[in-house]
């Protein structure tokens, strides 16, 4: 293990970013007002006023974008308007895995890589520290990752039991770290090693560039089948939150609890695409709703599939910003044809070395399994093939401008996916926002 690789592993946020004074909290507790409680109150009120002002302007702009009757044609014409391209957004990816997932994480990273984005890789506590070091070392060996400097590895991992609430803690920790690592990203995405993209990053960035920057892509519903309903009422304890050694499985309290009536519960896919604004609201915000809901979900099974869904739909500021799809392929069909025709940006549920991944690489992403996904950012590819074909290698010898996208057929597929979704939900992005699906 080189010290450099160790340093990379340690480059992960050691003091949790939440403990750092944020601009907001330093404002509230500024030196001048600390001694005078009335000043604290006035500054708090003015902050709340400023917040409500900025939120109302946000919801105003989003409602302008969302309530157009002809959103369909508007989006279509926007998306095919190629001569005045808006600048591409930047995405922040949290990629999570467990013990033995080293190669799957590297493969997924090579398929979603783009220099405009930022990446945080997390191997949970089931993996040992040498696995995390090996991952950091493998990232270091790939020139383009090091040259751009946008791939980070979490050195101090958390437990990631997807049955419990510790995996939600991992997502929130990752999002907080990404807020601190870069000020420039627009959307946060969380993927685990069973996810894989079905379009290139140039395709995805190209399409997202045309969409309002305040959309949160969260697949959600408030319909729970009777079994899920009973599960919701159980009080679950996740030892992964407080035992630092490899903990036991989650366990349950003997009593049941009523469902909350202060907020409505929503559930959906644990994979979400969230705006920076919404992440800041959940992690740094002065509104207490995200924290109350977080505390409620500490004792709920698989809370990472419910937390953001419930917060967004119960927040006046954000409920108009949600799009009821996470751009993932929703059907369980694992036929390659169905996947590619769907136009979705991602699909979940792949097993390790699934042969269909090779096909996705070749046909949909235009890359060899061992190569980094191509894009407009690479001006010149290496012609000499690397000797070892099993590990990811660097194909780009001359880096270009990361803002130059070369979208391919995947952009058209994704555009159709979004348009079809809008037309299926009544021609409006708003139609399926936080509505009750309870039967
Ligand atoms: C860490 O885990 C890997 C994979 O399970 C194993 O091969 C290795 O021996 C472990 N190393 C230590 C130091 O426990
Ligand atoms: C796959 O797509 C075809 C249409 O292209 C459809 O008829 C078929 O039912 C789909 N298969 C599954 C399993 O969804």
Automatic annotation (TrEMBL):
Transmembrane segment boundaries: 36-55
GO MF, one annotated term: glucuronosyltransferase activity
GO cellular component, one term: membrane
Keyword NAD: no
Pfam family, one: Branch
Domain of life: Eukaryota
Membrane topology: Single-pass type II membrane protein
UniProt subcellular location: Membrane
Keywords assigned by UniProt, alphabetized: Glycoprotein, Glycosyltransferase, Membrane, Transferase, Transmembrane, Transmembrane helix
Predominant subcellular localization, coarse grouping: membrane
UniProt-listed InterPro entries: GLCAT14A/B/C, Glyco_trans_14
Protein name per UniProt: Core-2/I-branching beta-1,6-N-acetylglucosaminyltransferase familyprotein
Gene source species: Zostera marina
